[in-house]
Amino acid sequence: MDPEGSCIQDDPHIKVMMAGSTLRKVKSRSWKKQRHFRLLEDGMTIWYKSRWAGMGHSTFSVTEMEAVREGHQSEVLLSTAEEFPADLCFTLVFHGRQGNLDLVAETPEEAKAWIQGVRKLIHKAQNMDEKERLDQWVWDWFKKADKNKDGKMTFKEVRKLLKMMNVEMNEDHAFHLFAMADKSDSGSLEIEQFVYFYKMLTQRDEVWKVFQDYSGDGEKLMLEELENFLSMEQQEGEKSSQHAQELINRYEPSESAKKQGAMSLDGFQIYLCSQEGSIFKPELRELHQDMSQPLSHYFISSSHNTYLLEDQLRGQSSLEAYIQDVISTLKEYAFKASDFPVILSLENHCCVEQQTVMAKHIRVICGDTLLTTLLNGQVPQQLPSPQELKGKILLKAKKISGTEGSLDETLTDDISDEEEMTNHEAESLSAEEPPAGTLNHDGKKSKAKLSKELSDLVVYCKSVHFHGFEYARSYGKCSEMSSFSESKAKRLAKDTGTDFVQYHTRQLSRIYPAGRRTDSSNYNPQDMWSVGCQIVALNFQTAGLEMDLNDGLFAQNAGCGYGRNTQFSPEKPEERPGYTPMRLSIQVISGQQLPKVNQKEGSIVDPLVRVEIYGVPQDQAKEETSHINNNGFNPVWNETLNFVIHTPELALVRFEVEDYDKASRNDFMGQFTLPFTSIQAGYRHIHLLSKDGTAIPPSSLFVNISISELTRRSQI
User: Fold this and answer.
1) Residue 336 CB coordination number (10 Å)
2) End-to-end distance of the chain based on CA atoms, in angstroms?
3) Contact in structure between 396 and 345 (CB atoms under 8 Å)
4) Residues pairing with 536 in the sheet
5) CB-CB neighbours of 231 under 10 Å
6) What stretches of 168-308 show up as alpha helix (H) in DSSP?
7) 562-564 and 652-659: which strand pairing?
8) Where's the PH domain (predicted)?
9) What's the rounded Cα separation, in Å, for the pair 666 and 662?
10) pLDDT of res. 438
11) H or E stretch covering 701
12) Is the model's pLDDT at 23 over the cut of 80?
C-alpha cells in the first residue's frame, strides 16, 4: 500500500534524489559543509547527515516546504556567488517561520534534478486529498515501527509504535487488536493488515455516536438523514439539501453507498475531518470583504525589522524573511500573495545624497508599481481604497512641506524608529503638547534634511510627528500618518481610547515594538486593533501567542493582508449602534494524534485544552478543560466551556493544547487561532498548528460549537 505509487518513483529527477547526493549546506561565507541528502522510500521524507556524524541524522518532510528557488536567490548564496556558480545553487523555502536551507550541488545536472524533483513532490503534496493524506500518515507510522525494515511488524514493534503514537494502552487489549489484524496468524503484520489494525485503533466512538443519532439503520445516513444532521447540528438551514448531496459525492468512498444516495460512517468521518468540516468557515477564507472603503478602514498585516533572523542587535540581516512576507521591497515578490497595495515603511538613516541614490533605486526596482502621483490628480478628503490601489507600492516616509528641502518637524517620528525610541520612550511631553525641534551640539534647534527626490515618492503615507488628537482633528490630513511605540500607543488607548478610534477613521497609524525588545519579542497586537490602529508591526521572525493572533486575524479574506476595521468605543461596546452580545458555547469532545512534546522513548503526554478570547477589554477571557492522564492519541474530555462576546467583529478565539505538568509550567503542544466571526457552528475539527504556525497533520481537536444571541433571559 505504498501511497507514493510507482509513477513518481519512475521520474528521472526523483530517482536521482532517492539514490542520494552530496550537497554543500551553506550558512554563511565561512560556514559551508558537505552533507549527504537523499529522498526516502516514502517519497515524502528527505534525510540528511554529515559523514562525520556517526549514526546521527536529520529529516524533514516535503509537506514542510513551500517552494524551491533556483540560483543565487538568497542573501547567503549571493554572498558566495564568486565561489559557487548559479547553476549549482538552490534554496529550499519552508512554511512558517522556519529558516530556509541554502544548498550547492556538485554538478549543474544534480542541482537541476533536486530543483525539479522537489518541485514535483511539493506539487503532489499540495494536491493530496484527505484519504491520501491519511494513507501517507499510516505509511509513515508503519515505516517508523518496522525497525528491521522487513516490511512486517511484530507485536514488540507494535508496542513501541503505540508509545511513539502517544498511546498508553493495556497490553492485553493491544495484543487483542494485533491478533484480530493478524489474519494469517503469522505473528506479524504486513502493510494491509497494519491498515486494518490502525482502523481499529483509531475507531472514533464519539463520531460513531453522532452518526447513530441520525442513522435509521445504524449503517448509513440516507440523503434525508444527512440533510437533517446538516440542518440541526451544523446549522446550515436551507442549503442543507443541496449540500448533503455534494458531501456524498465528494467524501463517500463506497461506490455502492453513493448509488443509494447515502453516506457510510467512513464517509461521515472523512467529511468531518475535511476543510469543510473544520471550524473555519471555508467561504471566509476566500476574498469576501468589501475592499472599496478608504485605506484607514482596514487592518493591515505589518512586519517590523523582519530582515533580521534573530534578535534586534546581533541578528544576521537577511532579505529572506521579507521575501517570505507580503511586505517586500522587491517588485518580483510584492504581489505574489495579494494584488492589494504594499506599504513600504522607510527607516531612513541616510544623508541627503544617499537618500537621492536610494530614491533612484526604489524607482528602478519598483517601476510602474510604485505610486508617485495622486489618483486622478486630486487632493483627497479621504484615503483611496485597497481596490483602487491594487498592484501599487506606497512609500511611507517624511515629505518636504516647503521648498527648502528641510523639515519643520523633529527627527523623532520615522526617519528611523530607533530615534523615536531613544527620544520618546520616556515621553515627558503630554499627548497634546506639540514637540520642540531637536537640539544640536550647540543647544540650538536643527532641521532634518531630506532629499527632494525621495520626498517626491511619498504620496498617501506622509510620516508626521503626532501633535495630539485636537491638532489632528483641526489640521490633520488623511494622507498624514504617525508612528507610535507600543508604550505610547498603550497609554493613548488607556487614557483617550475613544479619541484614538476617531482619529483612525481618517488617518493611518503604525505601531512598532518598544526599544527594550532587543530580543525581537512581541507585544499583544489586540490591544492596538481594539482602538483601530491599522498597521500593527510585529517581529514576524518570533513565534508565539502574538504571531498566532496576527496569523489568525489575517487568515480570513484570502490571506490578502487586509481586514475590515469597525469603529466603536472599546470601553463601552454596548453603546454602539446594533450592539448584540453573543454567547459562545464550546463542547471540547476529543483530541486526535496530538504531537509528542518529549521525544524520549516511553514519554506520554497529559493533554488539556485552553480556550482564550482576545478582543476589547470586556471580552478578554480564558477557560480550560481538565487534563487527561497518559493519552495524546485519542483523549476524550466531553467538557463544555462558555463565553460571552460583546464585540464579535473584533474577537479572536485561540485554542491551545498543553501537556499538563503539576511541578512546572505546562508544555505547548499545538494551537489554532481564528476570528470569532469565522467560526462554523456544529460538530467541527480544529486542525492544530505548531508553535511556528505550520500544520502538524493529523493532530486535531473535535468540538461541538453553539453560537447564539445573548438575550436578557439567558443573562439572568
Assistant:
1) 11
2) 58
3) yes
4) 301, 511
5) 17
6) 171-181, 191-201, 205-214, 223-232, 240-251, 255-259, 265-273, 282-285
7) unpaired
8) 15-123
9) 8
10) 39
11) strand 695-709
12) yes
Share of the chain above pLDDT 70, in %: 84
Cβ(312)–Cβ(517) under 8 Å?
A: yes
Distance, in Å, from the CA atom of 472 to the CA atom of 467, rounded to the nearest integer, reads: 7
Q: Is 391 exposed, middle or buried (0-12, 13-18, 19+ CB in 10 A)?
A: middle
SS3 551: helix
pLDDT digits (tens, 9 = 90+) for 122-165: 998 887 766 677 677 777 778 777 777 788 888 988 888 777 77
Q: What is the DSSP string of 678-692?
A: GBPPEEEEEEEE-TT
Distance (Å) of CA 95 to CA 100, 296, 335, 478, 547: 9, 30, 18, 37, 14
* Cell numbers at 135, concatenated: 494513507
Question: What secondary structure letter does DSSP report for 664?
Answer: S
Per-residue pLDDT at 56: 66
What phi and psi, each to the nearest 5 degrees, are found at residue 322? Answer: -70, -40
| Across 689-702, average pLDDT | 90
| Half-sphere exposure (Cβ direction) of 628: Cα atoms closer than 13 Å | 23
- Residue 349 burial (CB count, 10 A): 11
Exposure class string for 468-483: b at 16+ Cβ within 10 A, else e: bbeebeeebbbbbbbb
Answer whether 277's CB lies under 8 Å from 271's CB.
yes
Question: For the whole model, what pTM was predicted?
Answer: 0.81
| Grid cell 528557488 in the structure block, residue | 69
Closest alpha carbon to 26 in 65, 66, 76, 98: 76
Q: Where are the alpha helices (DSSP H) in 252-291?
A: 255-259, 265-273, 282-285
In whole angstroms, give the CA distance from residue 657 to residue 639.
14
Q: Pick from 463, 461, 481, 483: which is nearest to 472 by CA?
A: 481
Tell me the CB-side half-sphere exposure of residue 675, using CA atoms within 13 A. Answer: 21
Other beta carbons within 10 Å of 215: 21
- pLDDT tens, residue by residue, 697-713: 889 999 999 999 987 54
CA 535 to chain centre: 18
* Separation CA 246–CA 538 (nearest Å): 41
What pLDDT digit, counting tens, does each position of 415-455 carry? 444 444 434 333 332 333 333 333 344 444 445 588 999 99
* Stated length of the chain: 716
Scan for cell 527594550, then name that residue: 516
Cell numbers describing residue 129: 486529498
Kindly state the cell numbers that stand for 708. Answer: 447564539
**All 3 cell numbers of residue 518?**
532587543
What sign results for the dihedral spanned by CA atoms 68, 69, 71, 75? negative
For 136, the 3-state DSSP assignment is helix
- Let me know: does 668 contact 547? Beta carbons within 8 Å: no
Q: Which residue has the cell 522487513?
A: 150
